[in-house]
Structures are given as structure tokens and as C-alpha cells.
Amino acid sequence: MEIRDLVTTDSIVANLKATSKKQALQVLAAHAANICGQHERAIFDVLMERERLGTTGVGNGIAIPHGKLPTLETLFGVFARLEKPVDYQAIDERPVDLIFILLAPELAGADHLKALARVSRLLRDKSVCNKLRGTNSAEALYTILTESKETRAA
Predict the structure, then answer these.
(1) What pLDDT digit, counting tens, does each position of 30-68 carry?
(2) Which residues are catalytic?
(3) What fold, for 3-152?
(4) Can you give the chain as a three-state secondary structure string?
(5) What b/e readout covers 17-41, taking b as 16+ CB neighbours within 10 angstroms?
(6) Of 125, 37, 24, which Cα lies nearest the Cα of 79?
(7) What pTM was estimated for this model as a whole?
(8) Where are the domains of the chain?
């Protein structure tokens, strides 16, 4: 599973304007719905349901909200670089400015976990995150996400 299997340049939001976690997830659910053909409300609901179990703000300004949808046919991702960090109730209590949403078919099982692990490994790389924070072009963000050494590894 490669990051390029999850995102396209159309699924990158370069300068997301949001003032809260909920608003960021609402905007990203709408963006995802336009690309993957799922209902915006279903996407938002599954992401919020996951947040109620515990924050997906993993620290260092990064959040990886994720969930499964019964009518989705393939793994799908949306990446956003927020214009300004928002309070996300992250585990380190720091605001979040990089969000990678991962949506999976309901029966994805191991593939969902592998994709989640891949995204997590990529975003743990501080140099990758610094590059992501240093650009505001969707094309450049896509290139950074898909051409990093972590993406090519394993």
C-alpha cells in the first residue's frame, strides 16, 4: 500500500480555513464526498464517531481521522494543510495543522490497518512534516506525500 494509492492531487486541500476540529472535519467530509461519491454526512458522522472513541490527534500537529463506510469500494484519503492550527484535543495538547483522513470499505480489515500504519509512519517523519508545512500548493503537497523515502520503503 502506497500513499499514492490513497490520494490524488484532487484530494489535497492546501490551505484549509477552519477555526475548530469540527469545522475542519465538516469541510474535509464535503471535499471527500465530492471526490469519492459518498454522502458528506455519512463521512462526517463516521469521523465524529471515531473521535468520540478517542482523539485522532496523534501529536506534533498531526491528526489522522479515519473510519469505515459500508458503501465505499476502495481505500481513500484526503490530506489537508490548515491555514492556521486548530485545537484538536490531541494527545500532546498541541493544535493540529496537518490532517490526513483515511476512509475504508467496511470489510477492509487488514488493508485499512496497513494504510493507517503507512500514513502514521510517513507523518512521524519530521522532515516530511516540515516540508508539508512549508508549501501551500496542492501539487507540491502531493509530491511530498508520495515521493518521501518512507513512502518508497517497505
Answers:
(1) 999 999 889 999 999 999 999 999 999 999 999 999 999
(2) 66
(3) Mannitol-specific EII; Chain A (3.40.930)
(4) CCHHHCCCHHHEEEEECCCCHHHHHHHHHHHHHHHHCCCHHHHHHHHHHHHHHCCCEEECCEECCEEEECCCCCCEEEEEEEEEEECCCCCCCCCEEEEEEEEEECCCCHHHHHHHHHHHHHHHCHHHHHHHHCCCCHHHHHHHHHHCHHHHCC
(5) ebeebeebbbbbbebbbeebebeee
(6) 24
(7) 0.93
(8) 3-152
